[in-house]
Specification:
two-stranded antiparallel sheet; single chain; binds beta-D-ribofuranose; 337 residues; binds calcium ion
């Protein structure tokens, strides 16, 4: 395994996402940390169409790189699946109200100079996942921040290749909580329940970071007041998201679903997990997309290759971790251009 300057092994990450306001915040946090070397960002349908997710991720990686002193990033972005495995497509009217019509709030509206898109490719996401898993093996962590279609396709193609991967951290599902898109289902799982079922039953080392913990990862919007141009861009990013939160919950605090999943990949100690069997309702009935988590006493330990389900969170520790990374960007503070 390759080593970094300090001689410790390099950890590689592949992030699969559907940007998305909180996907954007997750990548911003992750790229500012030296913890992972990001080999690839793959994109998928979800909050926006697959086409917009790919475009947004390319703009975003370029924008983030421009505002970071180090490391210099040129992370390639790959296009992914545009439909769920069962051929269904989400109605995105609520997503538009949450993430803005194009998925990134007002971050790249006319008043801000659009970054030249970062490195793209026509190689499909699932193929990149298979190649990365084969190339990096136990040095690779896969973090999924959107529907699991790309990963399920990759597992179908080459299941054996993924057995060496260090961990797969999934933002999605709910164990002891109602859903957010229906009473039963969390959004990412609902978008492609069959894909989620295949990933959770794969026997691979999967951590589920679901609504049980992400609903508690609430950040006050005044963290983004003042400062320089980078902070202003983040303010524009979260405006619609915060407005929707206010309408829904009465408070503008924003829920950091995706940043928490990526943070857990770096700092597993931020959550407490329980090993459980996780199944998913992939029917078209009222429980479609529900994650059915085996939490009955003494049954988790009997399950072979369980999923580690996050049930408790160090809220303060996570929020401090998140903000400390955003502060690293040039233009966070007022005097930085
Ligand atoms: C998940 O759904 C999406 O809207 C967010 O980006 C996050 O990945 C939360 O349920
Ligand atoms: Ca997402």
């Amino acid at each position: 395994m390759a080593g970094n300057e300090s001689g410790s092994p390099v950890r590689y990450a592949l992030v699969d996402c559907d940007p998305g306001v909180d996907d954007t915040l997750a990548l911003a946090m992750g790229f500012a940390s030296p913890f992972f070397r990001y080999d690839a960002v793959t994109t998928v349908h979800g909050n926006v169409s697959a086409r917009l997710a790919y475009r947004n991720a390319r703009r975003l990686t370029a924008f983030l790189r421009d505002h970071l002193e180090s490391p210099v990033l040129d992370v390639p972005v790959y296009p992914g699946a545009s439909l769920a495995l069962d051929g269904s497509r989400m109605n995105r009217s609520e997503s538009r109200a949450i993430h803005g019509p194009e998925g990134m709030g007002a971050m790249f509206d006319k008043k801000r100079r659009l970054p030249r898109p970062g490195r793209g490719s026509s190689k499909p996401a699932w193929e990149v996942m298979v190649e990365e898993a084969a190339r990096r093996g136990s040095a690779l962590t896969i973090i999924t921040l959107g529907p699991l279609t790309n990963l399920a396709l990759a597992l179908r193609r080459a299941p054996g290749v993924f057995t060496r991967v260090k961990r797969i951290v999934v933002m999605g599902g709910a164990a002891r909580m109602p859903g957010n898109v229906t009473p039963a289902a969390e959004f990412n799982i609902y978008c492609d329940p069959l894909a989620a079922k295949e990933v959770f039953s794969s026997g691979l080392p999967v951590t589920m970071v679901g609504l049980d913990v992400t609903r508690r990862a609430l950040l006050r919007v005044d963290e983004f007041e003042g400062g320089g141009p980078f902070r202003a861009a983040i303010r524009d990013l979260i405006k619609v998201y915060a407005r929707f939160a206010k309408k829904r919950r009465g408070a503008e605090d924003i829920t950091l679903h995706d940043p928490l999943a990526l943070a857990v990949a770096m700092r597993p100690d931020l959550v407490e997990t329980t090993p459980c069997r996780v199944d998913v309702d992939a029917s078209r009935g009222i429980a479609r997309g529900m994650t059915v988590v085996e939490l009955r006493e003494n049954r988790g330990s009997r399950v072979k290759n369980p999923v580690d389900v996050a049930l408790d969170l160090d809220v303060k520790g996570f929020l401090a971790f998140f903000i400390s990374h955003l502060r690293k960007y040039r233009g966070w503070d007022e005097d930085e251009k």
